[in-house]
## 1
Amino acid sequence: MKKLKYEYQYKIIFLLVISFILIAAIYILNMPQKGAVPTAASQLVFEKAHVSELLTENASPDYWTEGLRLGTQEVIVTIDSGEYKGEELHVTNYMNAYANVDLQQGTPIIVRLDLDTQKHPYVVYIANYDRSFVLIALALIFAMLLIFLGGKKGISALTGLIFTVLSIWFLLIPLVQRGVPSILASILIVALTTIVSLFLLNGFSLKTLCATLGCIGGVTIAGIVAYIAGIMTPISGFNMTEAEELILRASDSGLKISGLLVSGILISSLGAVMDIALTITSAVSELHDMNPKATQTELFKASLNIGRDAMGTMANTLILAFAGASLNTLILFRIFDYPYLQIFNSDMITVEIIQGLAGSIGIILTVPFVAALSSVAFEKNK
């Protein structure tokens, strides 16, 4: 009982220290850089609104858009947020196949506002549906299910997930923007999020240490494989679909694009590698508890067998995730009936193949690495 009390206190102290460091780092890294000029996008004003009245519409379903209505609508919208909250404004809504916000009375929307020559607001265009309620509700359902079914472990997992998201958005991206090599920044964030996430789940323990080292090792392996494959192909962050826009921004910032491909693989493979590393370490821990006399070789063989069952599904999950992200491109290749020689050597498909296979290789090699590390650590800890 006393041991559990101390472990709880250590966890609280650790979380407070990490939170303080994280807040300080976020504050420093997200401060405006000296001489930085606000971007044009940051000056745009978007507000919540809803359709208070549908005046006229000239829209009808179109066969080639699978029933989407195309045309125009004249509506009155009421602004629901910001400086002009409560104002009613007239707007023409243009609906096409690619920007299709089909309005009805009461529809919640996001609008872009500007001021005319008389300093009166007007709606430049209707940007999107207001999806905030659905997204927040979905996130709350996810959180409640995780907590309800996972108990304390679920709360720890949710806290770790929030920490990971905050670290990527407020630490990793600002570091890359400020010119820190993206691969180095990604390794640091992977190590940080792994330590915090696994500590939250298992506290200070041998299991946490082995899973953390195994996870960092597995992700690093994936990054090394991707880096070598990128040199040999050759391919880099400049071959990614967003590279052109990033190049325009890199000219007036410290952003380095070349390592972004490897960085993406490090981040995307983190979850799967962490899963399999913790699975194997937990298995070794349970086997050791059930049979404290088990030798290092016995623990290694047993954990390796368990890892073999898990590695297939984890690798499959990772490759399918990358395939799903590029599904539209794959469909277009089939529609245009491109030769396979061109398909498999195109930048887009090569990037996806390297991402999927490098991450999967990292997962596969994590299994024997973590199995060996855990079996040695637990056997020595008799």
Note: The chain has a mean pLDDT of 83.
## 2
Amino acid sequence: MDDGKLPKAHELTHEQYHAHPNVPSIDQSDRNVPFNLRQSGPTPVQMLVSTRVRKSPFWHLSIEAGAWRATVYNRMYHPRGYVKPEDGGAMAEYDALVNRVTLWNVAVERQIQVKGPDAEAFVNYVITRDATKIKPMHGKYAILCNEQSGILNDPVLLRLAEDEFWFSISDSDLMLWLQGVNHGLHFNVTIRELDVAPLQVQGPLSEPLMADIVGDEVKDLPYYGLMHAKIGGCPVVVSQTGFTGEKGYEVYAYNATLNAEAVWYGIRGPGASYGLRVIAPAHHRRIAAGILSWGQDIDFETSPFQANLAYQVPRKKEADYIGKGELERQRAEIDAGRYPFALKLVGLKMEGHPITDYASDFWLIREPGAGRVGYVTSPWWSPELETNIALGYVPYRLSARDTELKVELPAYYSDVSGQPVRARVCRVPFRPSVNPSARERAEQEGRDWAD
């Protein structure tokens, strides 16, 4: 083909269809750059640690705490494992999270400040939700889209003052986008990265621990509320947020390159009496809560309507925002009963041996009696549900709850090597959160738009 487009499955010969390693039977026509669905499995490579990728202010402290593996997130090294597999691995970390209290190095959530007289108007233009409804010292989960409706980032958005917002960003370089957007618009704001690095304190004992550290005021902090405090004599902002469905807080350390040790030990010291454990971000718990991971479950070629984020797209926001026209067009199609995408994100419960670590591939989903039709983005084992759970993309016609599917798991997770396991589409979230998310609240109220 010479038009620059990828061939569709029906345009391939029989030999090409079955031999092509990137599985063209899975319709990725929504994407300009399809996901690489080749099943390479774990690969014996070692991460190169060099000066071209940033080490966060807490990097050496994570190593001291036992971090033995890492990935790269926002061009920073990101610890992703502390407990060795022979000592229980990620599931031992999960146990500490859901039963006690944990400390996470999440400095990779780089803080992008938008400050100035036009801060509210600028933020309102770049996010889908209504920024005017965010009060000072409060925050919200938000998404930013491009003009084609692709999700560029899904940060926690904090409003420190009338004229100051912080984007606590997920894994894409949002600062460059924000600066580029404002280059021709000339909102009266400054846009820059701050020397502020967050830690997360997560788990059922997080509230009494944080009360010991910063005072009982933290007990009155509402979900997505903010407060100023000091830890280890250093200024911090504390929010009741986090990448789990458990009770938890984020601690944003000012001047983090100078204050990292004081804040870190200011939490770890008092935490010892609560059984605090340093762990990696708990993807097993965020999957159960239906929290999405940018680059894994969503990216700049994913519409919110594909990924159960319709509640992030308002129906009544009068102000213009980037992507508004295309998002409203897509919603009109959906309202008319015409789903405008090839694939949709769903929750799955799967058979097979317990999945107790990160997947190295997008595992493939089959339609029973037919071929491969989708792929898993985020799988893990749920001890509470006693089953494997996952997020994954399937054709819209197969996205209804209780639809029977099959998943091609690696041999070490399969019941019978070489045979896919049974799976079923189910409700997301898999488990309720301590603080119901905006999506859960929208569902309870019977609406599919942002409040």
Note: The first strand starts at residue 69 and ends at 73.
## 3
Amino acid sequence: MPTYARAPLEFERGEGAWLTTTGGETYLDFGAGIAVNALGHAHPKLVAALEAQARRVWHLSNLYEIPQQKALAARLVDATFADTVFFTNSGAEAMECAIKTARKHFSAKGEDRHEIITFEGSFHGRTLATISAAGAEKLTKGFGPLLPGFVHLPFGDHDALHAAIGPKTAAILIEPIQGEGGIRPVPKQCLRGLRELCDAHGILLILDEIQCGMGRTGALFAHEHAGITPDIMAVAKGIGGGFPLGACLATEDAASGMVAGTHGSTYGGNPLACAVGLAVMDEIANEPFLAEVRRKAGFLNQRLSELADEHADIVDEIRGEGLMLGIRIREGFACGDVVQAGRAAHLLTVPGGDNVVRILPPLNTPDEDLAEGVRRLGVALAAVRERTA
């Protein structure tokens, strides 16, 4: 179906932060498959894990015990707030599970609390439930009727948030850093306030860390910077390093309604996916790696800030955390034009909401590649200025 506005590029191989087209041209990848290729292209340990598992067993379904799934669940539980994990193939499915878990939590207790509070600018997937959660017209137009049970609030409106909580409220759902919405971080004090608000009202806090999780911000998960924990969390993208994998993590209490038969997935927790997920955890879920992400982030942020000063007529601000950064483009210019000019300079970036160019390089990108990416971005900004003039 013609649902994608694809760039006219075909890549046949990649290594690290670099991609090569079928015609032999090389491109520097600062999009990482929209924050999916956390360890770049063709990482040798991920390739080895996939090849080894492919020679054993590909698929079983969840009718049977899957050792790789149990091992990855144990690693995630050990590294996070969670007591239990449900595996999916994608972020949207992880969010579906999170929504169902929250509603089932109260239903199992005999309480009619099903409303979930969400925020303007959010993106949680493309299923009917997840577009209903986000509520934006660009996602929902033509797909009605939408699913009920979601309360949409302005981003950052504290008074509206307090007024929206009522006897039907089950949970608050938020991305610690909005990705599609334009790399908009939720301030740490606000995340702490959300945790306190949920505790005060006996409701659940659901975090969508599909894009901002798995080391992207320099912590394994972004909420750790605020010193809080959620009740339920959706994870995907970087967790498989490019192999389709998602997960819904929850505390034992939050998931108390999810008993045998309440939810399922044919492919979720597939041996191939979980073998790769274990290899990703081996690389990312340790302090030396995360400290290096933070160091690289400081290096990149400094270079981008210098670039913003040089192109202050086009660049409004640099925002984000870790290696999840956004360049907000001033009114009168379009982020899509910057992305397109970047492609002409053989640099791949990702457009986002609020007229933002997303910068999402692999977490292990060498400093020289980060610097080269900023140089090419400068070429793109200059080209946009010349074209606009």
Note: The chain is about 40% helix and 20% strand.
